[in-house]
Fold these 2 entries.
Entry 1:
Amino acid sequence: MATLKTKSNELIHPMEHLLRMDRIPHIWCPGCGIGTAVTAFASALEKSKIDLDKVCIVSGIGCTGRVAGYVKLDSFHTTHGRAIAFATGITLGNPDLKVVVFSGDGDLISIGGNHFIHAARRNINMLVICVNNFIYAMTGGQVAPTTPLSAYATTSPFGCVEPPFNIPYIADSSGAVYVARWTALHIRRLTNSMAEALNKPGFSVIEVISPCAMYYSRINKLGDGLDMMKFYHDNSEIKHGEDTKNLDIGFQTKITVGKFVDRERPTYTESYKKWLSEIKRKK
Amino acid sequence: MKHWRTPFDIEEVKVPQGEIHIIKDRCKGCSFCVEYCPKDVLEMSEEYNAKGYHPPRVKNPENCVNCGLCEMLCPEFAIWSTLKEENED
């Protein structure tokens, strides 16, 4: 990569043209994996050679919801859980845009769960990057719909009793065309996956398992962010094309990662245009 | 580097030499780059940066092959590598 320099001849990071540098350093804790996911996204934007004026990024509320404010693209920071609803509106208003929803598990799957399944059902042209850190981190470590059974959180002091969601399974069964899961450590595979999904029309979902060093790991006594990264290194198995039924994540169990679904379905915009022309022809 | 046989293209292929750049004051001391550097180039330093964290330090600069893993893993956009120009030596 070419070396970039500022006016005062200082070296600058090669990704700075994709970031709003007036807002950096970001608010994420030391050892958090969201920054790594943003780095992967920035490299994927360069790799996919997509026109940056045609990319729009939408985030909800939460730790990952801050991404829209840090990336130097057209971006929306929306209300809690409504990122996909806003993104649907953007796609319908301007079908030429590639809309990327970058948000967390609590935002997309819990509060915005309904929008998630319906956008997948309609196959609206967007890429959903769901950073899963197993907990509501920004609000203080409450139980999220992805918190594994028996894991501790501030609102489950005796261990979580609710079975968690399996995000790739929901996405697959609701009709997403591209479903992948990687951890924040599988950085090159994650970048390739994002670049592939950016060029794929339809509802694509990439789940990024990210360490939460301040809440999830502290409450469950799992060490710092680096210890969680080491755990992912030792306990993740790459199984491409695995049945999404088998992708449940338990507390400190093996994590199956890979690309699970890659199929073709007509997107909402295509079906709508086709339907409209048929109706016009009949009249 | 040890080879079990001499590669045919050993004359043509050159191991790239990278140069690490660190913005110390942006670092939050997560040590991902130090842990996962495949060539063991970095180590954590004893000094403190403006935020009070220990930034990494280049331990073996000659080992860097400009693979870019530190740049991709860093959550803070604080470290990256560039290819060292050949004409310097």
Entry 2:
Amino acid sequence: MKKNKAAMTGGAVSAPVFRQKPLKKRILNSWQLYVMLLVPVILTLIYKYIPMYGIQIAFRDFKTGSMWKAEWVGLKWFKRFFTSPNCARMIKNTLLLNFYGLLWSFPIPVILALMINQLRFKRFKRVTQTVLYAPHFISIMVVCGMIRIFLSPSGGLINLIAGTQIDFLTEASAFRTIFISSGIWQDAGWGIIVYMATLSNIDTSQYEAAKIDGASMFQRIRNIDIPELVPIMVLQLIMCAGGIMNVGFEKVWLLQTDLNKATSDVISVYVYQQGIEGAKYSYSTAIGLFNTAVNLLLLIVVNRIAKKLSDVSFV
Amino acid sequence: MKANIKSKKAAGLSEKASDIILVVLCAVILLIVAYPLYYVLVASVSNPYDVYAGKTFLFPSQFTLEGYKAVFADEGILTGYLNSIKYTVIGTVFSVVMLYLTAYPLSIKELPGRKAISIFFIITMYFGGGLIPTYLIVKQTGLTGTMWSLFLPGGVGVGNMIILRNFFENSIPKEMIEAAEIDGASKWKTFLKVIIPLSRSIMAVMVVFSMVAYWNDWFTAMIYYPGDENAPLPLVLRGILIKSSASASQSGMISGGYAELNKMTEMIKFSSIIVAALPMLIIYPFVQKYFEKGFMSGAVKG
């Protein structure tokens, strides 16, 4: 992993041998490589960087015409958002949905990976992995369709098993559970890959030695596997913290009903409704920017804490 | 290994016991994950009234393929299917070409400006313009309402690009590249004759990832490429699965009145789920063994 990290952040670990050639010659030598990069760079400039520059419409009053010439209005849109009736509810829902989601969906892949890694029957191990990955490859649209079918008050699977006739999607109190548990079903299996890859680095002689010393499976997991996973877990946690305000828009939008809005009303859906459906471009951009700002702040804070506590950091 | 276990009898026993507990636990998890899909599969070949009466927990009841016939007779779904195939093929070719064109130059250590260009791409993983500014730029560049709006704004998949770049750096022997260049091959020729053939396994993974992304995407099409005739399959399914509405072609097709229509609508729900999910579920196991390898080199992003 260390080696990868160097390659990743480094990029610049160039061999000293090549430094000796003059820069001009090296650039000329590489012209074909620059040509390869041309289209990707141009596309990224146009569709990633110009939109970043376009964030300024959050401080302008843009309706039509040129994005760069609309009148400056300062913090008008931010003020409007913070004084809108549902603002507090949306922020709270966004944070809670993610916080609870993280609480459940972060540890589960770790536990699954630790378990599967200990499986000794190769074929069973492979089948388990194949099945666990499967839901990841299904469209969110299809998953939401399945959720609706399973939760249907008349003959849905859950109601059949429980012997009830509850319309879960109209119950605000059930929304978070539905959202998070279906999310675990879909992505926990896929989430194990990172951990499995890390565990596969462990030298099997360590396990053998532990066995000779009489260590049980549980002890081997605790003393060999978990310490190996800690750095990557911290890294994943930091990345999650940086996305704490990013609720998967698609799923919330597809599962939202008028009656569960008390818990399903989140910022990303509001951004979509105001921006795309309502064409309130500046207002929507401002809310999106607020969202991103909170994310960045959390990323930095958690990164700091992690650096202090475990010496693993991300930037 | 066996000798060790025997030598410590107590440890050997608990070893066996923990093995069994582990297998049972994993089997339970397997069932929990697989059952929802199995249930939908069974329901798709059963009479929907029996499904809703709870008669199909394990096996189909009144086996029928009516649902699938209705799905493939539905013009909306068929158009969606063909659209999705088209977008998936074009999108995958585009994305994988972009990935290679970016990852290969950035894997060459002596490329001047390599670090800066890498950062240029990586920043976009963590920071972006957001929904509306991107939407407006796509609109202003005239892509909205064309098929290209589905591919071009995505640009380079940076996460996958890093995995691919690390593969080039770590798994392709430098000597092969140097040998080709000493033989007088240009950088393009090396790329085509050495890099591409040596990276088939990781290319398969990239192809599958891209295919899945395009096959399952609907949001991009919804905002940039509207119109029923352009809708990819998931967007067509939105009407059926989420809004629960029978499409016009269905209502016209069925003569048996409201009850029959209702039954058909329910059957189509189940079978369309299978029809939409199946292609990707068949494909991914073929490249599964490369997933971990790919992530091992790409796990530490940034």
